[in-house]
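Possible regression after last week's pipeline update?

I re-ran a chain I had predicted before the update to compare outputs. Posting the input and the new output here so someone can diff against the archived version. Not blocking, just want to make sure nothing changed silently.
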Amino acid sequence: MDAIRTLNSRTVVLPATDIDTDQIIPARFLTTTTREGLGADLFHDWRFTADGEENPEFVLNQPQSSGCSILVAGRNFGCGSSREHAPWALLDYGLQAVISTEIADIFRSNSLKNGFLPIVIDDVSHRWLLDNPGCEVTIDIEQSTLTLPGGKTVSYPIDDFARYCLLEGIDQLGFLQKHNTEIDQYEETRPWKP
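New output (post-update):
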């Protein structure tokens, strides 16, 4: 994972509610245990027609979405089954964050562990983002803020450990490995042995 301090991007808007993990990355594409290549099948059943052609009506296939790394989605994003492949697919496609008023707990946890930023904001700010696709926003991970055009700043919740890992560019294993010396010292000096 790369360390993330701020994200600055135009937004791409997918206003549908209850977007589940099977819509994010359909189960038939979960034949890999690696993260690479999953972006090609992100939102597959929406991005492509039955004959495999790009659906020109789907927002990610439209020219104005090119280069956007922040997705604004409808309420209850990431619901459904617990699959780590969903944030992997979003990241592999080039998205780095999703903004909504509600994000499923397991998806949120999987995302933070993999360097994808799930942001929950208030209804009014969310509605403004839905109504203004392609606007330039800035996400500050350290301050836990989202800055909208015109300078309005919106706070979002993120637990301290997740924020620390994002800022350091590490996952849970990386956090433990940073403390190998202390762990080894404890193992050598503890009064009991397994």
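Follow-up from reviewer: compared with the archived run. The first helix runs from residue 21 to 24. Marking as no regression found.
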